[in-house]
Amino acid sequence: MVSIAKYMTAVADMASLVAETAMRLHRRSRQEDRVHGITGARMAVLDRLVSAGPLPLTELANAEAVSAATMARIVDGLEEGKLVLRVRTAPDGRVVKIVPTTLGRTFVASARSRRLRWLESFLGGLDDDERASIDRALDILVRAADWKPS
Q1: End-to-end alpha carbon distance in the chain
Q2: CA-CA distance, 34 to 18, in Å (whole number)?
Q3: Which CATH code fits 4-146?
Q4: Using one digit for the tens of pLDDT, what is the confidence trace for 49-75?
Q5: Which residues of the chain have pLDDT under 70?
Q6: What share of the chain is helix, strand, coil (3-state, %, to 5)?
Q7: Are 97 and 49 in contact (CB under 8 A)?
Q8: Residue 3 exposure: Cα atoms within 13 Å on the Cβ side
């Protein structure tokens, strides 16, 4: 019989490894973006705008958990690269939303495709048993991503 302390240590070690591995996979996939000249922060913001639609700078800053000043610098860089535009949306022109351009949308689609090709290449090199193990683990990880403690 396994002691409670050993069980808890094993669960804590597993949780740590799952979290660390998820972060490493995320960082590794983002390396594909840096090869094409965009920082992780800029890519995250551009990806959010393409997924969520146009947002005011303050909402974007809150969503990315950075200050408005930091977000302004990120958006400045994206705007210089012609990946986003600042668009006044209220009748009186006070509300400014950050909008991805066609180039920005294309860049995100291309980046997503590159990341998937990298991972597909790795998974394609696994044998059937390894892919089956990952398939079983994914069922659990997807459940974990949606799980809320009661």
Answers
A1: 28
A2: 25
A3: 1.10.10.10
A4: 999 999 999 999 999 999 999 999 999
A5: 1-2, 4-8, 32-35
A6: 70, 10, 20
A7: no
A8: 3
The answer to whether 47 and 39 are in contact (CB under 8 A) is no
- Reported residue count of the chain is 150
- Rounded CA-CA distance 150/142 in Å is 18
CA distance 29 to 92: 42
Report the phi/psi class of residue 10: left, alpha or beta, with left for phi > 0 and alpha for psi in -120 to 50: alpha
Distance CA 125, CA 19 (A): 24
Tokens describing residue 1: 């019989």
Spell 56-76 as b/e; 16+ CB within 10 A means b: ebeebbeeeebeeeebbebbe
As given in the structure block, the two tokens for residue 19 are 């979290």
